[in-house]
Amino acid sequence: MAKLREKLLELVPAIVLFLAIMAIWQAAVSWGEIKPYLLPSPRSVLDAMLDTSIDWWGHIWATGLAIVGAFLLAAASGVLLGTMIAWSPVLSRALMPFLVFLNTLPKVAIAPLFLIWVGYGILPNILMGALIGFFPVVINTAVGLSQIDHDMIDLGRVFSAPKWKVFAKIRIPNAYPYILSALKVTATSAVVGAIVGEFVASQTGLGYVIVTSQSSMNTALAFAALIYISIIGLLLFAAVGLMSRYLAPWAEGTDA
């Protein structure tokens, strides 16, 4: 109970700030005579979020699936490539220039190519999210696997441990904090990528809702979709945080 109370107290500043922003927002709309299509009131946004004429659950499901798929693909490919770079200097010299080149490409310009290559649907949105989010995982994985206390490596050599065993027992646990830190960045990047994919071409999803709301100047609907997108991103970020507490409690400052 003491820990729960402590956690709840930690949320008080964020809750107070949120309520203050809502109050200022409502006051600005009510007394500032701001047009609803420029800035809707919090009440109108809430009404839009609860509007049963809109298939919110279908849109949330489509976007959530794209975001989670993008995150998992970025995490898996990033860890694999980062491990390959740390394992072999030859692979590092071969892969790094290509990965840097890929990361510098304008991602929005690549989205139409995904439509040509894989067609319409959720897959191009997943690929877009993964493309935006995988690079930090690659770099942090490679750094985490490489920057390790040499005494630990020497200890493995003293016991004649093969390279793969040193990798599995020493290098990979050492890389956990680096990888998990990158996954927190990727959790937000996957959201951006998936929504960009929905902006380009999609018949469902929260990004599609935002695009269609522009034609009717329904700003409250766009705000409602943005809030749902933020909730999905926050849930994914929180899931990575929980995973960090389990895999690397020493890095999170928590007890195992």
UniProtKB/TrEMBL annotation:
Belongs to the binding-protein-dependent transport system permease family. One of its GO terms (cellular component) is plasma membrane. It is a multi-pass membrane protein. This is NitT/TauT family transport system permease protein. It comes from Aquamicrobium lusatiense. Its main location: membrane. It holds the Pfam family BPD_transp_1. The chain crosses the membrane at residues 56-86, 98-120, 126-145, 175-200, 220-242. It is found in: Cell membrane. Residues 60-244 form the ABC transmembrane type-1 domain.
